[in-house]
Amino acid sequence: MFSHPISGAGYLLQGLRLITRPGIKRFVAVPLLLNLLIFSAALYAGISQFEGLMQLMESRLPTWLGWLEWLIWPLFILLLFVFVFYTFGLLANLIAAPFNGLLAEKVELMLTGRPIDQEGDYARLLAELGPTLLDELRKLVYALLWAIPFLFLLFVPLVGPLLWFLYTAWMLAVEYSDYPMGNHGLRFAEIRRRLRERRTLSFGFGAAAAGMAMVPVLNFLLMPVAVAGATAMWVREFRSSNGYQGPHESRVATHYILLTIDHLSGRMDGEILAGPLTGRTLDATETGELLGLLDLCYRTDAESAEALEAYLTHERGQRFQEPPPRPDTERAPPPPSDRPGLDENEARAILGLAPDAGADAIQAAHRRLIQRLHPDRGGSDYLAAKVNEAKRVLLASRV
């Protein structure tokens, strides 16, 4: 089985894709609306207070200093925007915490096909409002206590700003990892312990989040994106194997190609099983060489050609029309793909399921994969047909 390591920043990018998926968008709307309301309210309050201050200043300054107003207002507006952009996230996270927990739950359901054993979305949200806000306050106190020494170090040239950035990265990793991990009952100390065990990954995720927080407008999206990305990171990197539904990797074998599909990232790779490039991985083979192999597949094995086309389209951005006609003078061997159909082992490999997977797990794996591979969503007719056939074979075997 092939594994594709994903960096912390990669999980944040994955979160950006996840929040646009059907079934997830509605759980993103409330946190985004809260961000906009809090930001707008902070700007309104700041400008209102400053107007009063300016009126007081005008009443006490000589008339000939009236030009100062034209200098002070633009400077104030700039400072206000900077201050609000970089601080309103604390309050937004506090208020939106219950919604973030629900968002993490829905993202995990989409990734794994397994619902967390909880009932009633919004009724439960109201019931957990108090405990969730208490947890958020606990995280806030933790962050503030650690901020004190790092604030003093901030005045140390070069080293101070770097340490402050690392502190911010760690706090953001803790903040957003708490939502998916907290949904499974992990306490704050245990969350920190797990993140410390994967420091590079955790700091990479937090650093990417800190960078996104520094970009005006983009930082409005940080909260839902980071929650979704942290959930994907939890499922793939931190969750124990006992709770993980199968390998989360599909394997489609043809005569020339073993194609692998990562369920979480949607990334494809594989191994070349026959021909002049035997033994190479797809990722390590140049596009020109793969196109040469594709030409061989066109002439000898249509199923391998379809699998390789799917990889080249998805990972290399290649576009294909109808396959070239097979020369009449060429006598191709009987394609190994001409067989009665999938057996159960092949079907389980395609859906990424263990031998004891039940009907619910089969349906969930099929639903998860078809969302990624359906032609209407930029997927592949060939792979979608394989996923559908695998579901049919496995469900039929359980009747």
How would you describe this structure to a colleague?
- GO terms for molecular function: high-affinity sulfate:proton symporter activity.
- Keywords: Amino-acid biosynthesis, Cell inner membrane, Cell membrane, Chaperone, Cysteine biosynthesis, Membrane, Sulfate transport, Transmembrane, Transmembrane helix, Transport.
- It comes from Allochromatium humboldtianum.
- Strand 1 (249-253) and strand 2 (257-262) form a beta hairpin.
- Mean pLDDT is 76; it is low at 241-246 and 327-339.
- The chain is mainly alpha-helical and 399 residues long.
- The protein folds into three domains: 8-40 and 92-238, no CATH class; 245-322, no CATH class; 342-398, Helix Hairpins (Orthogonal Bundle), CATH 1.10.287.
- The protein has helices at 8-18, 25-60, 68-112, 121-127, 129-153, 159-182, 188-197, 199-213, 218-238, 287-300, 302-316, 344-351, 359-373, 381-397, and strands at residues 249-253, 257-262, 268-272.
- Helix 6 (159-182) packs across helix 7 and helix 10 (287-300) runs antiparallel to helix 11 (302-316).
- Strands 1-2-3 form a three-stranded antiparallel sheet.
How many domain regions? Answer: 3
How much helix, percentage-wise, in residues? 55-70%
Q: What shape does the CA trace take?
A: elongated
Report the average pLDDT across residues: 76
Arrangement of strands in the largest sheet: 1-2-3
H/I helix tally: 14
Helix-strand makeup class? mainly alpha
Report, as a whole number of angstroms, the end-to-end distance. Answer: 30 Å
Strand element count: 3
Write down the secondary-structure element order: HHHHHHHHHEEEHHHHH
Low-confidence stretches: 241-246, 327-339
Percent of residues in β-strands: under 5%
Largest sheet: 3 strands, antiparallel
Radius of gyration: 27 Å
